[in-house]
């Protein structure tokens, strides 16, 4: 039997949280879904995650929250990051960093590994995500499926990791840019891939931020305090079906806009 995975793009602020809470039941009505993963690093006001918001998202049906460069933006995260196995921060932070870079979850009698990595191009100089993933694969000996969230800026770095892991993992999906890409495919080795799954957040915004603030920044080059936008939501993501042998047989982009 296939394992059906729902991936939701970066949840941005209150609007994004409302969107996923409303859209998940609609998706479950139409599709068989066994496991839900979402990127939660922007869920608290656009920056970071708090224990209360994490629990809100878990209650909405999300099984695992991956993170990224905004992992540490809310100090409250330190109260749960070591103990909450369902929150996965980038694995290529240096040794000794709080939290865990991957987790193994039992789904329909199968072991599903979820790994979070962060890119280095135009981002923080963390440990090499390619070599870190090699290390992790040596540790993941008794798993049936391996799913990787690559939180990165550069499309080239994301695509390169997809090819690097083709045939070695079940799915590589990109997060961080908040803009969905149209390159979803199954690579020759059986790995499902997409450069970015997009955003679950305010539709009328600049990647989740109030438009006027971003325009003022570009027009004046003066510092601006960014705030999450309000209004209708857009929820973007993918549905992926994985076969018994850990390979992908289908990957489909999804998008829900409030009011449509």
UniProtKB/TrEMBL annotation:
GO molecular function: 2',3'-cyclic-nucleotide 3'-phosphodiesterase activity; metal ion binding
Binding site for Fe cation 2: 41, 69, 151, 176
Keyword NAD: no
Highest rank taxon of the organism: Bacteria
InterPro entries the record matches: Metallo-depent_PP-like, YmdB-like
Cofactor(s) annotated in UniProt: Fe(3+)
UniProt keyword terms in alphabetical order: Hydrolase, Iron, Metal-binding
Catalytic residues (positions): 70 (proton donor)
Pfam families attached to this UniProt entry: YmdB (PF13277)
Binding locations of Fe cation 1: 10, 41-42, 178
Keyword Hydrolase attributed: yes
NCBIfam families (alphabetical): TIGR00282 family metallophosphoesterase (TIGR00282)
Family: Belongs to the YmdB-like family.
Protein name per the record: Ser/Thr protein phosphatase family protein
Organism: Carboxydothermus hydrogenoformans (strain ATCC BAA-161 / DSM 6008 / Z-2901)
